[in-house]
Amino acid sequence: MQRIHQRWFRTQIVPQIKRNKLPPRPKFTPDLEPQCVEAFMHGGRGPGGQKINKTNSKVELRHIPTGIVVKCQETRSRERNRQIAREKMAYEIQKYNNNGISERDISLKLLHSQNKRSKAKKSKEKYAKHNLERELMKRGQELEDMEVIKKMASKE
Amino acid sequence: MPRISWKAAFEAARLHPCLPLLLRACRTVEQAQVELRWLLKETPRSVRQACVLRSRHVPLQYVIGTQPFGCLDIVCRRNVLIPRWETEEWTTELIAGINGSVLSSVHGGIKIYDLCSGTGCVPLLMKSQLQCDAHFTAIDVSRHAVRLIRLNLNRLFSKGGSPADFRIMQRDILHEYPPIMPDGRIDIVTCNPPYIRRQDFVTDVQKSVKLYEPKLALIGDLEFYQNLLDHWLPRTDSFVYEIGNMGQFDFISKTVRQDPNLSQIWNVGLKFDSNNSPRCVYGFKSENTRLDYRKIFQNFGNIMHSCK
Q1: CA A74 to CA A85: how far, in whole Å?
Q2: Could you point out which of A44, A118, A139, B121 has its C-alpha 20 to 30 Å from the C-alpha of B5?
Q3: Prokaryotic-type class I peptide chain release factors domain location, by residue (chain A) (predicted)?
Q4: Which domain holds residue A150?
């Protein structure tokens, strides 16, 4: 559901983007798996096994039909890095098929600017309200002062 | 090893005040940044303290306290060898082989022995991933290792007390007399024995390994492979042993080939790791076995000696 805002001076439809209703993240489907080549980077040659304690867990994923390469070294676990690399790859493939445009990215950008705008609006309203209150208080005080002065003048 | 240039040190210091400390162990700024990211996320102590430990070449796994192994997080402590990615690799492939060919209804479950267990990573990963019933026995000489295996087991599978299908034994498989006698036939023996030759220890081994990891789990040559031939071959249907160099593989394959009895019943194969180094020697019988080993080890490595 998209909420529709109508303004009195012109009929423009402003679709509102909601955090929980963004276009979904692209999924890495099982039929993409045979199109990809996976390589584990352990950093060069030389001795291995018990001799070296490598913490390098980098995973490189290459999609052959498009030639997209994705690397991942976010975590220490190779299993987890493989999953993350696949998520990244799905995103890149979707972007490639869509002429470099990702709908989710655009929506996120719009959401961001929308949030920014509403924040600015809220703060503006808040300041206006506070200013009004201050003004009223000032005026009230002035009236009080005047009354006091009048009383004093009448006594004399 | 080349010195760290002062330029690199300054560049690191600009990025994070603790980064130059990591440079001593990591050598490059990029690698140090990756490690710092992990330390910030996972270290139980303060980041500065952790970086100071790393600058003294304490292994990252001892600083953080765990090492991912497959889908598990294995606790690591001093005096016990840290699981390596090579071991993780062959264990995952072995599990995939078993899951792809062994039916879940094997009579009585399969029996797996893991020798020189260390943290117990190999049987623990198998326990969590195998789809069929299995009984595990983990054996190690070191009391530190045995304690750590128990800790890891309880941490990972503690629901309803300690599991009954996992035995832990503190034994010396080389020198103990009488030797360990398994009840009935073993299906698979796995082992990651110490395999660095004494002459290679000084030259080839990384500083942090040399300083902080137990020599008991590192230095050795052929004794465990000799023990495999003498003691375990008559009692098992298949084995997977990690190796450090081709000499250890040649020793096994030559002995099997030259023995008139063994060469008739055993197939011996060699597995390379993804860095193209020889990493595993494995073997299986092809007759009178409960499991279809040819299928289990189909994609595991290359068979170098095939029985008739």
Answers
A1: 9
A2: A44
A3: 40-129
A4: 102-156
